[in-house]
Write a structure and sequence with these properties.
Number of helices: 1
Helix content: 25-40%
Shape: elongated
Distance between the termini: 90 Å
CATH topology of the largest domain: Immunoglobulin-like
Radius of gyration: 31 Å
CATH architecture of the largest domain: Sandwich
Length: 134
């Protein structure tokens, strides 16, 4: 009596199409995953390395209807110069004043600075918009 085989003989017809497709998908997924990690890493490094000046608004105080005092903490490379823009807003959200703060103290890596922003109406908030290096 002969036995009936459910599968093909090993090695005679090559690998089934399913295995080839699975292998291709695994290789393609690995390549795309590595490429995605490389792109994210590149953008992250470029963002961090490109920032030579960064700052943080520590606090602000509304002094009068025409002035706001802003305390900034600026971190930078020792040889970097640039500027930071501070904006103040009224209660309705409109901009009532802004100031371009020069950051030019060479040799310093951390600067605590209190600046006065003149406003054309009473301000209720102040915000650090951006810092740029020159």
């Amino acid at each position: 009596m002969t036995a009936v085989r459910d599968q093909r003989p090993d090695g005679r017809y090559g690998r089934p199409a399913d295995e080839r497709a699975d292998r291709r998908l695994k290789v393609l997924g690995s390549v795309l995953g590595v490429a995605l990690l490389a792109v994210v890493g590149w953008f992250g490094y470029d963002y961090i390395a490109g920032q030579r000046i960064s700052a943080e608004l520590i606090k602000f105080s509304v002094v009068s209807d025409s002035e706001v005092q802003v305390h900034l903490e600026i971190r930078k490379d020792a040889d970097a110069t640039g500027s930071c823009v501070v904006r103040s807003r009224a209660e309705d959200g409109s901009e009532v004043g802004w100031l371009d703060v020069a950051v030019g103290q060479r040799g310093e890596k951390r600067i605590d600075q209190v600046v006065t922003v003149r406003t054309r109406a009473r301000a209720t908030s102040a915000e650090l918009v951006q810092c740029t290096a020159r």
